[in-house]
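JOB MANIFEST
job_type = single_chain_structure
chain_count = 1
residues = 294
[input]
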Amino acid sequence: MTEQNTNKNRLNEQIQEEVNNHGKALEEMINKELRGNDKDVSYISKNDVEVMLNKHFRMVEQLIKKNIEQPEKGMSLQDKLQQSVADFKKQINDKIDLIKNGYEESKNKALEKVDHVKDNIKTNINTRIESLNNRVKEMTENIEKKLTIKPLPVKSEQEKTQEKAPTSPSSKEQKAVTPEVARLQEQIAYLKGQNSQLSEGFNQVKTENRRLSLENKRLQNTAKTVGKFLEQDAPAMKRLETFAEKEKSMGKLPSNNVQNLVSEQLQKGAMQKLPTAKVEKLPLENTQGASLSR
């Protein structure tokens, strides 16, 4: 019983240390990424960030709970918390870009300055970290006796030496986890892992859809601009074709060069320099080998 309590205390201390480090990393990241317009008004309001933090810390609590009840091989709790900070950073930058580019309306109606929002976030994170540490204590105290408590893989040299000594489990410990319970635990852990992968995939698809939507709007705006340009150049195109036909009918321009002339003048941007109807008054002696002025 004493050894079990020691393991609980050690596990509790290690997880709380990870939680505290996570809070610092989260605060540093937000201070770096949060930005505002030229008047230093934050694109994101403090309420926006609080909503994002609510969702984030619920996810972190579930990660810790799973690490205590169902320890898994692979990514450590520290790695998972670091990944969650990177995900949060992407959420902030995506939201800022949407607001900055006019695709989403800012909820910062109070025109809160960037520093004001950062100070509020710092207080908010500290409060949540304290609350999360209290939850860690509750979770470690309420672990079911049939589950073996495994501390995080950070061990001192003295602990490693002590673990080399052979020990024989008692009959009660041998009966604590039956093969059926172990099998069910493995199935639960597998399903939770699958659910986590599906959730990550959904978030990636959602982000990609948002990016494609932005790109689609940009292409639509470009198409409108090109359309306006073509509408403005339609009269010039018509004048160029009329001029070329007149030149051809007067023998000044070979028939097979009419289309080439139109294409050439369009490519060189000469539509605004096209001749008017007065070209018919050109002296006849200058018609041989005549070409359009550029």
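[summary]
The longest helix spans residues 179-249.
Residues 1-154 form one domain.
exit_status = 0
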